[in-house]
Design goal:
By secondary structure, the protein is α/β, with parallel strands linked by helices. It has a single domain, classed as Aldolase class I (TIM Barrel). The chain has twelve helices and eight strands. It has an eight-stranded parallel sheet with strand order 7-6-5-4-3-2-1-8. β2 (39-43), α2 (46-56) and β3 form a beta-alpha-beta unit. It is globular. The protein binds phosphoenolpyruvate.
Length: 254
């Protein structure tokens, strides 16, 4: 456990209609009203952002988008921009989630453009990185992360990089029930922090919050958060029920 305040973030993905999102957000608002030892964030689908923002106004639960496009406006059917997310009430946005990379073809170059667009819009990006099972088994996780991260943050000055968060999400652990062991998560996240030390400096590296994501559940949250370099979670499946998200948030309030 570090001195960095943990962030517990829920990625609702393609789940929850507007009424369902309102119901879940309403439960979180009530159940987490006294939970101030961790930062809290939910990332509903685009259509639910504005009503959920209204419902959560005045609470400590922040709102984030799940993705964005790099242009601010124009003829880009289906896209949503950083300024639009900001105007809808978002403070954060997820960038480079492995589902965006694998299903929608977001390359590192695209992720880099989106990261810059998010920062330009005044949003806090959560940059997701992580290796496949194949890379882990080939024992090339570190080489892979060095290359992926280097490409994703290319050209970002120190002042901008100090505003991002990173989520280490091993692809083999997302939605599979196969969680990284606390040791695997801790070691890999320490390596990611060292990469920031190399690219920037110790101050940037020490202040950077690095979340872990990949089948986080109420029963494994505590041991994972006890790792020095695990500064919170990005949670998919277990963020879809108020009860499990609340239990994870409470277990992380050490
Ligand atoms: C995610 O998609 O960011 C994620 C970590 O999902 P899950 O918690 O379901 O593995």
């Amino acid at each position: 456990m570090s001195t960095r305040k943990p962030l517990i973030a829920g990625n609702w993905k393609l789940n929850k209609s507007v009424p369902e999102a309102m119901e879940l957000a309403g439960s979180l608002k009530q159940d987490l009203a006294d939970c101030d030892r961790v930062d809290l964030l939910v990332c509903p689908p685009y259509v639910a952002l504005h009503p959920v923002a209204e419902l959560l106004r005045g609470t400590a639960i922040a709102l984030g988008g799940q993705d964005l496009f790099w242009e601010d406006f124009g003829a880009f059917t289906g896209a949503i921009s950083g300024p639009m997310l900001k105007a809808a009430g978002c403070s954060h946005v997820i960038v480079g989630h492995s589902e965006r990379r694998e299903i929608f073809g977001d390359s590192d170059e695209v992720v880099n453009r989106k990261l810059k667009a998010a920062l330009a819009a005044g949003l806090t990006p959560i940059l997701c990185v992580g290796e496949t099972l194949e890379k882990r088994e080939q024992k090339v996780t570190k080489e892979f992360l060095r290359k992926q991260l280097g490409a994703d943050i290319k050209g970002l000055e120190r002042e901008l990089i100090s505003r991002i968060l990173v989520a280490y999400e091993p692809i083999w652990a997302i939605g599979t029930g196969m969680t990284a062991t606390p040791r695997q998560a801790g070691e890999t996240q320490r390596f990611i922090r060292d990469l920031f030390r190399e690219h920037y400096d110790g101050g940037i590296a020490e202040n950077l919050r690095i979340l872990y994501g990949g089948s986080v559940k109420p029963d494994n949250a505590r041991t994972l958060i006890s790792e020095e370099d695990v500064d919170g979670f990005l949670i998919g499946g277990a963020s879809l029920q108020a009860d499990s998200f609340v239990r994870i948030a409470r277990s992380s309030s050490l």
